Sequence to fold (690 residues):
Amino acid sequence: MLWFVGLGISGFKSLPNQALKILENADIVYLEQFTSPIENDDLTQIENTTTGEFKIAKRWFVEDGKEIIEKSKNQKVVLLSYGDPYIATTHIELRVRAIEEKIKTQSIHASSSITSMIGECGLHFYKIGRIATIMNDMKSLITPYYVTYKNIIEGNHTVLLLEYNQDKKFFLDPKEALNDLIETENGQKRNVVKPSSYAIIASRIGFEDQKIISGKIENLNKIDFGKPPHTIIIPGRMHFTESDALKVLGKCIDEPFDNSEKTEKISHQMMKKYVPMVQEALEEIKPHYKNKKNFQDILENAELYIQDAEKFLEEGQDEVAILSIGYADGLVDALRLAKGLDPKM
Amino acid sequence: MLWFVGLGISGFKSLPNQALKILENADIVYLEQFTSPIENDDLTQIENTTTGEFKIAKRWFVEDGKEIIEKSKNQKVVLLSYGDPYIATTHIELRVRAIEEKIKTQSIHASSSITSMIGECGLHFYKIGRIATIMNDMKSLITPYYVTYKNIIEGNHTVLLLEYNQDKKFFLDPKEALNDLIETENGQKRNVVKPSSYAIIASRIGFEDQKIISGKIENLNKIDFGKPPHTIIIPGRMHFTESDALKVLGKCIDEPFDNSEKTEKISHQMMKKYVPMVQEALEEIKPHYKNKKNFQDILENAELYIQDAEKFLEEGQDEVAILSIGYADGLVDALRLAKGLDPKM
Fold:
């Protein structure tokens, strides 16, 4: 029998009450602490609750899983881990392997830092987009950068988890991660994470010394965030109840604002450039085609497609809007080229 | 003093152990059960743990919040709720109001159905996109439909929470919600939720009779999912470890497959239609403009822009690709209109 038990986010005291008896009666309890650090007091309390063997399990040991699977065949084994157990995909894989080996498995879920953190910051959970992790040895932050970009243009908030390495006692500093994102911005230029962007640093959620500090990245850069774990949240569109809550529940060194206003969709950026450009090119070419019936149709069509493009954008049909403005541009430029005029740029 | 305490997903037994003493010592415990049903046995166990007043709090009562705030000024008050407390934005708002009234607040987080469900299905949590809720009285499912669409084209999974109304003892049937989504599909035609799409129904997660059934929607339609709560998950791109886990952890009435393969981006759908169409229109018009210098430039430009459009799409610059094919289309159609030919459709 193999139990996957979540410790929750606050150490021993966040352990679900049904788990106490299971720890007590287990033949072996493995404590996995590679996803987040666990305090010494909690370690002692957990150890005192167990009557069987108590072992610390390192990452390689859980990934390898052989000993855990072997012992679970005849004994009551618990794998205890920080937060909710299956946020770590390693644990899902171990469970699947155990079931395939005909071992009975059970789960006890517990509080997760992800849901807890969002609520503690006062953000609405249904506005969280895809989550990304930032590791220290990543060659580039292009992936978390584009996860953030795609979330922001939909108005979603982005949770950026930061690497924790138990063996090296290493936790990625949130300032370092933010500065690496800004470096990525300098190459990608999508207006996603700039020194003037708003970010939230949620530190030690669930611990007594929990801290939520938010502000412009350039100002967060001056702060010492202290002991890990830390998580970065890049908010997207903020409902006023969210900014109000953030101000009351955390410390805002700058007034919260909407990052999504600055990060315009590519389609919107393009329309802002092309609609006035095509309109101007059209007005310029009109006098050249006075009283020419077939060409009047083309001019009228161009006019209509410019209007349609704006209507489609308003309706959120961005792709059709771009197609329409491109089409209008083509009609107008054909008329220009036919008269030996250069296309507008 | 006001405590926001999560009950977790499994009733009394999922309550974090630190919460037991807090319930015992509270002057008043309000149990909110409008976000999900709570079993009678659990109600009794909770009530037996309290020594102060114990009251069931309806939705309007928590939203109004006046009594809770008033009592918290001089007494130890607990608001106990299913899952993790701040998934319900009502609770965040109540906490903010309490703090503004100088009331001390504390949170005890617990297991949430969202993180638990994803792990129980064997899906990777970092692939969950924005969550949506389906309510029975929604005029249309356009919003959850497009949330799903946007998630799928990014390869993300979509969690669709279904309405639960405590007062009316009403829980939206997952089959009804799926069929309403298919109806929306028939109008929107984005290839998001069709009878042949893959869906997961996660039922009663955290309860003894938890069930995870997945398959093509047309086959799920024949199943009685029984007692609520149920949640729909529309998977996006599935890693093989995810499909393997889903098969071991749940019941798959069809082999799991990748919905995202069928749901093409709008930009890709448009390019598939327009590139051959513009190419054909161009070939047709060429003979009409033999040996006309200015018009040769237009024809060459059209050719180049068609090629560019395809190149941009390959590079992932979808918007520029659409602009280019639209432009080529405009150039060609201007030449057609000038000769009294209708534009290609």
About this structure: The two ends of chain B are 69 Å apart (CA to CA). Chain B touches chain A through 89 residues (CB under 8 Å). Residues 114-252 of chain B form a domain with the Methyltransferase, Cobalt-precorrin-4 Transmethylase; Domain 2 fold (CATH 3.30.950.10).
